[in-house]
Amino acid sequence: MNEIPHGELQQQTFYELVGGEDTFRRLVHRFYEGVAGDPDLRAMYPEEDLGPAEERLTLFLIQYWGGPRTYSDSRGHPRLRMRHAPFAVNRAAHDAWLRHMRTAVDELGLPPEQRAQLWDYLVYAAASMVNTPG
Ligand code: HEM
Protein backbone atom coordinates (compact mmCIF):
# COMPACT_ATOMS: atom_id res chain seq x y z
CA MET A 1 0.00 0.00 0.00
CA ASN A 2 1.43 3.35 -0.97
CA GLU A 3 1.76 6.19 1.46
CA ILE A 4 -0.47 9.14 0.73
CA PRO A 5 2.07 11.80 -0.29
CA HIS A 6 2.54 14.59 2.18
CA GLY A 7 3.66 18.08 1.22
CA GLU A 8 7.33 18.62 1.94
CA LEU A 9 6.59 21.64 4.08
CA GLN A 10 4.12 19.86 6.27
CA GLN A 11 5.36 20.21 9.84
CA GLN A 12 3.04 17.80 11.53
CA THR A 13 2.15 14.27 10.58
CA PHE A 14 -1.50 13.31 10.21
CA TYR A 15 -0.89 11.04 13.18
CA GLU A 16 -0.01 14.03 15.36
CA LEU A 17 -2.69 16.23 13.86
CA VAL A 18 -5.54 13.92 14.83
CA GLY A 19 -4.29 13.38 18.39
CA GLY A 20 -1.61 10.71 18.21
CA GLU A 21 -1.69 7.24 19.72
CA ASP A 22 -4.79 7.80 21.83
CA THR A 23 -6.91 8.58 18.77
CA PHE A 24 -5.83 5.42 16.93
CA ARG A 25 -6.33 3.30 20.02
CA ARG A 26 -9.87 4.65 20.43
CA LEU A 27 -10.59 4.12 16.73
CA VAL A 28 -9.48 0.51 16.59
CA HIS A 29 -10.91 -0.37 19.99
CA ARG A 30 -14.33 0.83 18.89
CA PHE A 31 -13.94 -1.00 15.58
CA TYR A 32 -13.21 -4.29 17.34
CA GLU A 33 -16.21 -3.81 19.62
CA GLY A 34 -18.22 -3.83 16.40
CA VAL A 35 -16.43 -6.95 15.15
CA ALA A 36 -17.04 -8.72 18.48
CA GLY A 37 -20.77 -8.10 18.11
CA ASP A 38 -20.98 -9.23 14.48
CA PRO A 39 -21.05 -13.07 14.35
CA ASP A 40 -20.38 -13.33 10.59
CA LEU A 41 -17.36 -11.05 10.63
CA ARG A 42 -16.14 -12.35 14.00
CA ALA A 43 -16.00 -15.87 12.55
CA MET A 44 -13.20 -14.74 10.19
CA TYR A 45 -10.84 -13.88 13.05
CA PRO A 46 -8.91 -17.00 14.03
CA GLU A 47 -7.94 -16.05 17.58
CA GLU A 48 -10.31 -16.39 20.50
CA ASP A 49 -8.94 -13.18 21.97
CA LEU A 50 -9.37 -10.18 19.67
CA GLY A 51 -6.84 -8.18 21.72
CA PRO A 52 -3.75 -9.10 19.68
CA ALA A 53 -5.57 -8.37 16.38
CA GLU A 54 -6.64 -5.02 17.82
CA GLU A 55 -3.03 -4.25 18.68
CA ARG A 56 -1.77 -5.17 15.19
CA LEU A 57 -4.29 -2.98 13.38
CA THR A 58 -3.67 -0.11 15.81
CA LEU A 59 0.09 -0.24 15.32
CA PHE A 60 -0.29 -0.54 11.55
CA LEU A 61 -2.49 2.55 11.33
CA ILE A 62 -0.20 4.52 13.67
CA GLN A 63 2.73 3.71 11.41
CA TYR A 64 0.84 4.36 8.19
CA TRP A 65 -0.12 7.87 9.31
CA GLY A 66 3.37 8.87 10.36
CA GLY A 67 3.66 7.71 13.97
CA PRO A 68 6.18 5.30 15.47
CA ARG A 69 7.18 2.32 13.32
CA THR A 70 6.48 -0.24 16.02
CA TYR A 71 4.32 -2.28 13.63
CA SER A 72 7.15 -3.04 11.22
CA ASP A 73 9.63 -3.49 14.05
CA SER A 74 7.59 -6.45 15.24
CA ARG A 75 5.73 -7.64 12.12
CA GLY A 76 8.03 -6.65 9.25
CA HIS A 77 6.79 -5.14 5.97
CA PRO A 78 2.98 -4.81 6.12
CA ARG A 79 2.21 -6.71 2.84
CA LEU A 80 -1.43 -6.42 3.76
CA ARG A 81 -2.94 -8.11 0.74
CA MET A 82 -0.70 -11.09 1.30
CA ARG A 83 -1.53 -11.20 5.01
CA HIS A 84 -5.23 -11.28 4.14
CA ALA A 85 -4.85 -14.12 1.65
CA PRO A 86 -5.79 -16.80 4.24
CA PHE A 87 -9.13 -15.04 4.79
CA ALA A 88 -11.96 -15.00 2.25
CA VAL A 89 -12.52 -11.25 2.03
CA ASN A 90 -15.66 -11.03 -0.10
CA ARG A 91 -18.09 -8.17 -0.63
CA ALA A 92 -20.06 -8.96 2.51
CA ALA A 93 -16.92 -9.02 4.66
CA HIS A 94 -15.74 -5.79 3.04
CA ASP A 95 -19.07 -4.10 3.73
CA ALA A 96 -19.20 -5.30 7.33
CA TRP A 97 -15.59 -4.24 7.99
CA LEU A 98 -16.29 -0.76 6.63
CA ARG A 99 -19.58 -0.47 8.49
CA HIS A 100 -17.88 -1.02 11.85
CA MET A 101 -15.03 1.25 10.85
CA ARG A 102 -17.51 3.95 9.89
CA THR A 103 -19.04 3.92 13.37
CA ALA A 104 -15.58 4.03 14.93
CA VAL A 105 -14.43 6.93 12.72
CA ASP A 106 -17.61 8.91 13.36
CA GLU A 107 -17.29 8.52 17.11
CA LEU A 108 -13.80 10.05 17.07
CA GLY A 109 -15.46 13.41 16.42
CA LEU A 110 -12.65 14.66 14.18
CA PRO A 111 -12.92 17.91 12.21
CA PRO A 112 -14.57 17.18 8.83
CA GLU A 113 -11.41 17.45 6.73
CA GLN A 114 -9.46 15.04 8.94
CA ARG A 115 -12.41 12.70 9.14
CA ALA A 116 -12.67 12.66 5.34
CA GLN A 117 -8.96 11.99 4.88
CA LEU A 118 -9.07 9.04 7.26
CA TRP A 119 -12.31 7.67 5.87
CA ASP A 120 -11.26 7.96 2.21
CA TYR A 121 -8.12 5.99 2.95
CA LEU A 122 -10.04 3.24 4.75
CA VAL A 123 -12.51 2.93 1.86
CA TYR A 124 -9.65 2.65 -0.63
CA ALA A 125 -7.70 0.20 1.53
CA ALA A 126 -10.75 -2.00 2.17
CA ALA A 127 -11.47 -2.24 -1.57
CA SER A 128 -7.89 -3.32 -2.20
CA MET A 129 -8.20 -6.13 0.37
CA VAL A 130 -11.08 -7.94 -1.39
CA ASN A 131 -9.71 -11.28 -2.64
CA THR A 132 -12.81 -13.45 -3.04
CA PRO A 133 -15.77 -13.00 -5.42
CA GLY A 134 -19.33 -12.96 -4.19
C1 HEM B 1 -11.98 -5.43 3.77
C2 HEM B 1 -12.29 -6.13 4.86
C3 HEM B 1 -11.27 -6.72 5.81
C4 HEM B 1 -11.41 -7.89 6.47
C5 HEM B 1 -12.62 -8.82 6.40
C6 HEM B 1 -10.21 -8.10 7.26
C7 HEM B 1 -9.98 -9.19 8.06
C8 HEM B 1 -8.82 -9.42 8.74
C9 HEM B 1 -8.55 -10.61 9.50
C10 HEM B 1 -9.52 -11.78 9.67
C11 HEM B 1 -7.32 -10.48 10.04
C12 HEM B 1 -6.60 -11.47 10.95
C13 HEM B 1 -6.63 -10.95 12.36
C14 HEM B 1 -5.24 -10.89 12.94
O1 HEM B 1 -4.76 -11.97 13.29
O2 HEM B 1 -4.65 -9.80 13.03
C15 HEM B 1 -6.80 -9.19 9.61
C16 HEM B 1 -5.57 -8.70 9.95
C17 HEM B 1 -5.14 -7.43 9.65
N1 HEM B 1 -5.80 -6.52 8.90
FE1 HEM B 1 -7.55 -6.79 7.99
N2 HEM B 1 -9.38 -7.03 7.09
C18 HEM B 1 -9.97 -6.16 6.21
C19 HEM B 1 -9.45 -4.97 5.79
C20 HEM B 1 -8.30 -4.37 6.28
C21 HEM B 1 -7.85 -3.06 5.94
C22 HEM B 1 -8.57 -2.10 5.01
C23 HEM B 1 -6.69 -2.85 6.62
C24 HEM B 1 -5.79 -1.65 6.64
C25 HEM B 1 -6.19 -0.42 6.50
C26 HEM B 1 -6.43 -4.04 7.39
C27 HEM B 1 -5.35 -4.21 8.23
C28 HEM B 1 -5.04 -5.37 8.87
C29 HEM B 1 -3.82 -5.57 9.64
C30 HEM B 1 -2.71 -4.54 9.86
C31 HEM B 1 -3.87 -6.87 10.10
C32 HEM B 1 -2.79 -7.59 10.92
C33 HEM B 1 -1.71 -8.06 9.96
C34 HEM B 1 -0.58 -8.78 10.67
O3 HEM B 1 0.36 -8.10 11.12
O4 HEM B 1 -0.64 -10.00 10.75
N3 HEM B 1 -7.42 -4.94 7.16
N4 HEM B 1 -7.73 -8.60 8.82
Automatic annotation (TrEMBL):
CDD domains (alphabetical): TrHb2_Mt-trHbO-like_O (cd14771)
Gene Ontology MF, one: heme binding
Signal peptide: none
Superkingdom: Bacteria
Keywords of the record: Heme, Iron, Metal-binding, Transport
UniProt keyword Glycoprotein, yes or no: no
UniProt similarity note: Belongs to the truncated hemoglobin family. Group II subfamily.
PANTHER family per UniProt: TWO-ON-TWO HEMOGLOBIN-3
Protein name: Hemoglobin
Organism: Actinacidiphila guanduensis
Lineage, top ranks: Bacteria, Bacillati, Actinomycetota, Actinomycetes, Kitasatosporales
